Every structure is written in structure tokens, then in C-alpha cells.
Amino acid sequence: IPIRNKEGQTTMYQGFNVDITSLDAMQQQLSRAERLATLGQVAAGIAHEIRNPLVGIGSTAALLRDEFDSSDEKRADLDIILNETRRLDRIVNQIIDYARPRDLMPTTWPVEGFVDEVLKLLDTRLEGQRIKIVRQCEPDLYACADRDQIKQVLLNLCHNSLDAMPTGGELRMSAGQAARVGTPGVYIEVTDTGSGISQKDLAQVFQPFFTSGKQHGTGLGLAICRNIAEAHGGDMVLTSEPGRGTTARLWLPLRPARDYAEFSA
User: Fold this and answer.
1) Of the candidates 146, 50, 151, 144, the residue with the CA atom closest to the CA atom of residue 95
2) How do residues 179-210 score in pLDDT, each as one tens digit?
3) What pLDDT, on a 0 to 100 scale, did the predictor assign at position 94?
4) How far is 57 from 62, CA to CA, in rounded Å?
5) 227 burial class (0-12, 13-18, 19+ CB within 10 angstroms)?
6) pTM above 0.85, yes or no
7) Closest CA to 185 of 151, 118, 234
8) Are 142 and 185 in contact (CB under 8 A)?
9) In angstroms, rounded to a whole number, what is the distance separating the alpha carbons of residues 82 and 59?
């Protein structure tokens, strides 16, 4: 900090020993919020301009498809049009989901039962796969958050883990209490024994539209998950080792539902 004399000239500098880690994190979060606001405006325009012709293309292709026999090559071509139309619609929806502000509807719920509920939803995906499921939850553990949004996060993490274990492995979901910067909270972890993520890719996994090679991925899944965590005043961290697996940790602060008003849009 410059120290000036009466004439306004700098005569010396006063230094302070200050930890700027939290300030840097705040600046990064503010910068990301500004980018999100801009992207949200663009996404709204894109959705309006793309969805209308998509509906027309999809409806017309569906009508034409019904006029051809199942063995006709033209029907197969129309199937491709329909599938790609649906895929484009999903991409548009994900862009909007990533960019729009989130209105939270927090409630208090038992974490152990919630984890069981999420794992139950994976039953169809697990059929025919050699995946071992392990659950480790501290008893009498409660969270206060938007139940549906957190379920979306955990399902996304679980599906990512299953994608990383095409030949089988172990999917572990654990939960417990953990404080962060003096704030009490709960964590829910999803761990797999899959292919892992390189350190180069690990630094970019939360960047929108980054994908490490998924054939049908849009690169928005983890970015949306982190947005949901931050909307709750929480955080998400990924650790990984190539060839040994990945752990995704969702951390949520312990606070009454009324306190979430400051995080809602």
C-alpha cells in the first residue's frame, strides 16, 4: 500500500502479511458467476431459436416414419433424424440447466435413507454388470438441501463411475460429517475403481463443454453438479489416479432451511 506525502508523492510502501487464498477463491467464483449470467442470456435466445424448428423436424420425421415398413431403408434414415433431434434437444436443455439461476427448495432429510434411494435408482443400469455396491454412512446423519437437485448430482456422479468401469469394479457411496473452514457440514462421496482421470484432465473436468472422450457426452454434467453444490453454499472436489479410480466428494453446509434464501435466485 503506497504511503504518500502532502504533495501526493509516494514516499514508501506499507506491506501486510495477509492470506489471500479466500479472496482469490471469491474472485474466481465472482468471475464464474459473471460468465454464467452472460451464458444464461445467450442460452435463453438459443433455446427459443432452436426448439421451435426442432419440434417441427421431430414431428414431421415421426409422421413420415410411420408411413414406411420396418424393413425400408428410409425408415432407418428417419430413425437417425429422430434420435439426433432428441439428442440436440437434450444438449439445449443441459445448456439452459447449466446457465440458469437455481431456486432452492431445501428440506431436512436423513442421509442414509437418501443414499439408499439413489442406489436403488441404479438397479436398471446395473443389470448384467459385474459391479459391487458398497455403502458406508454414519448413522443419524441429516442434511438440509434441495433433495431433487442433490439427487441429480449423485446420480450423475454414479453414472460417470459406471461409465469408467465397463468391465466391472466397485462403486462405493459413503457419507459423514466434515467441517470446512470452520463451518460444520456433511459430505457424500462416490468412489469407483475405474480407469481414473489424468492430472491434466482433472484440472478441467468442471469446465463447461469439457469431455475426456465420452461418445455421447456434452461436457456439462460435472459443471452442472458443481453449480448445484455452490448454489447450496457447498463445494465439490474430484480426486483421481489413472488406473485406480476416482472419488467425487460433495460437501454441504449444515444450516436451517431459512438460511438458503441468500443462495436462491
Assistant:
1) 50
2) 988 889 999 999 999 999 998 999 888 887 77
3) 74
4) 9
5) buried
6) no
7) 234
8) no
9) 9
Q: What dihedral angle (degrees, nearest 10) is formed by the CA atoms of 40, 46, 49, 50?
A: -130
What cell numbers appear for 223 in the block? 459443471
Name residue, grid cell 474466481: 28
Cell numbers standing for residue 118: 439413489
How many of the other CB atoms lie within 10 Å of CB of 155?
A: 17
User: Of 174, 190, 105, which Cα lies nearest the Cα of 144?
Assistant: 105
> If you compute the radius of gyration of the chain from its CA atoms, what whole number of angstroms results?
23
Angle CA 147–180–31, to nearest 5: 80
Residue keyed to cell 468442471: 206
Look at the chain and count its residues. 265
Q: How far apart are CA 218 and CA 225, in angstroms?
A: 14
